[in-house]
Fold:
Amino acid sequence: MVALRRAEARLLLLMIRWLRLSLFRYNNLDGQRPYAVRKPREYVAKEPGDIVESDTLAVRPMPSVVLKHFTARDIISRWDVLEAHTRATSHTACSFIDSLLRRMPFPIRAIQVDGGSEFEDAFEKECQRRGIRLFVLPPRSPKLNPSQKDVERAHRTHTEGFYYEVYHGEMAVQPLNRTLEEWEAVYNTVQPHQAIDSLTPAEYIRQHHPELAPRAISVLYVLNEYKILKGCPRCAVMPGGA
Structure:
């Protein structure tokens, strides 16, 4: 009887060790990523900037043109930042971090991405260098991250509305991104969204996080609003309110 209890105790100890090791490998992506981890259960987004979802999508506005569209969405305020590139690499994703920090009106504490290769290597090192936490979603796990559907919905809103309805200019990245940033400004400061009580992201920030309001109504966005509303009336009527 004593020997049996000792065997059971050893077995239980081995099971505990195995579970701890499995959990460690899961959270640290099985040792394959030097900085990125799974989002801890206790990490809950409460304020703008706590978690910014980022994703890419291949867009074909013309039969001979393929662009890589980057979307980042703050899951609290629904503030979006958009950018187009000819390729989705870790280096272009690094430059997208610069755009996020410049155009989101709050500090970014964590970025959450899927397992795309553009969010590895240089991108991961840049997040670490800037002190931004990087969370990677498990593959094929929509139930673990319902907010990922928000990013996918944002993709649909921006790609269908901008590339196929509003933009008719050059397909070179530089002029396209200038107009895309104007579209982004309307989305963040003019277009109301049902998910945040029919407020615009800027209005939501002013009402619920007034300490961030000065940046949320920066001169850049005010000028962009004026230019779009005067020069491109259709830009001010965006589908979906995603």
Q: What stands out?
A: Helices lie at 2-27, 90-103, 122-130, 148-166, 173-189, 201-208, 213-216, 219-231. Confidence is low (pLDDT under 50) at residues 18-27, 232-240.
